[in-house]
Amino acid sequence: MQQYFSLADCDVMGFDLDHTLCRYHLPQSARLIYDSFAQYLVTEKGYDKDLLTLAPDSLDFCCKGLVLDIEEGNFLKLAEDGTVLRASHGTKSMTHEEILETYGRREWKHFNTVSAMVSRSGSYTLASKYYLYDNYFDLPGALLCARVVDSLDQHDGQKKYDFWKDMVAAVQHNYKISAFKEDCGTYFPEVKNHPDKYLQRCPESVKKWLKQLKSAGKILLLITSSHSDYCRLLCEHILGNNFEEYFDIVITNALKPGFFSHTPNQRPFRTLENDEEQEALLSLDKPGWYSQGNAIQLYELLKKMTGKLDPKVVYFGDSMHSDIFPARHYSNWETVFILEELLGDEVAVPADSESEPLEKKGKYEGDQLKAPYSVSKQWGSFFMDRLPGLENAEETLVRTWSCKCVSTYSTIAIPSLEAIADLPLDYRFTRFCSNRSATAGYYPSPPRPLSYASYSSKCITTIQQ
């Protein structure tokens, strides 16, 4: 595989919407998502009213990459080899001794099952025994589930937990496809009435960049699992009423990752009339706005539009299981992972120790405060953690399983589209590759913990030699 990746070599640019093109004010949106689920559990399912109150620092619990063991009420942070780095029962952190007693120093027995969740929908299903939290729409639900476990322990002394079916119902009630139109639930009515409170307008640099891509002859796609009415609200707010001019093809209710993994018979495209889905299409013949669909028929249309037998597609997204893994695994597209945690880990770097050129810093200073739980005090870095040594042995720095997934399935990882919008189209990014440095692939700079670990490893190797 080539060492470098350039957008100039791509014929088609595909974009996810939520938390990719449309960035949210995270503290406000996290609280809204939490409240929307909690309101349902309390009013419809009779859960403790204390769930409706939230301490200001509670969202620190939220950390991408956590796995919920539903039956045990435990949250786990996993190393790349499947061992448990940190854990909590409900919101209460487990000690190192408790972790060793419960899970031992070995691959967690369900690690292969949870690893496979990256390739499945990751959706809230009743049959779930585990749930992987990998995006900002999910994370507030992790805090709510943890508090439910605390509440059940306090009142019922439960050892096995049966709250998941109610959590599924809360999610379905607030996010169902008709909720926006019907003003159903808490989430959509609130965003409709106060979009500025929750949505960040698209930076001018990104809007200019999108226009430059089209001027350079690139085909632009918008592929989102959001329904068409919510998509229109977001796009008009962040891009303007002429947002459709930025894209050749808009696909809503894409039901990712099924969009990439399903066949045309399983997931046909549908046209829309007044945001209502119409009959299934046998083929996709022209650009436009569609609903549902599949990557196979889309790619056939892209061949016609580009006049190439094998057009090169790059897809930008923020979810490993909905965007990055399926686009790479099923469609063999290049993938750019939008990872706001790259901003969070930079917050802790003192200004006088920064070594990046001036043009690579300063741009994000205002954004850092908007990502309050990208570095959780309770859970630590998304990328690395310390594994305590056994029997007085020294602790070691290890990559998290989430970090391994980033380098395995992403071409590159960036904190936002704004980070690359001012670069020339033929800029050459160093891509992730298994036989190169663990810090390759991150732009504009690697996460600090990963850089430190890489530096330490090189020092140790040098000393040994």
Automatic annotation (TrEMBL):
Name the UniProt record assigns to this protein: 5'-nucleotidase domain-containing protein 1
Keyword Acetylation: yes
UniProt keyword list: Acetylation, Hydrolase, Magnesium, Metal-binding
Pfam family, one: 5_nucleotid
InterPro entries: HAD-like_sf, HAD-SF_hydro_IG_5-nucl, HAD_sf
Protein family membership: Belongs to the 5'(3')-deoxyribonucleotidase family.
The keyword Acetylation appears for this protein: yes
Organism of derivation: Strigops habroptila (Kakapo)
GO molecular function, one term: 5'-nucleotidase activity
PANTHER family, per database record: 5'-NUCLEOTIDASE DOMAIN-CONTAINING (PTHR12103), 5'-NUCLEOTIDASE DOMAIN-CONTAINING PROTEIN 1 (PTHR12103:SF38)
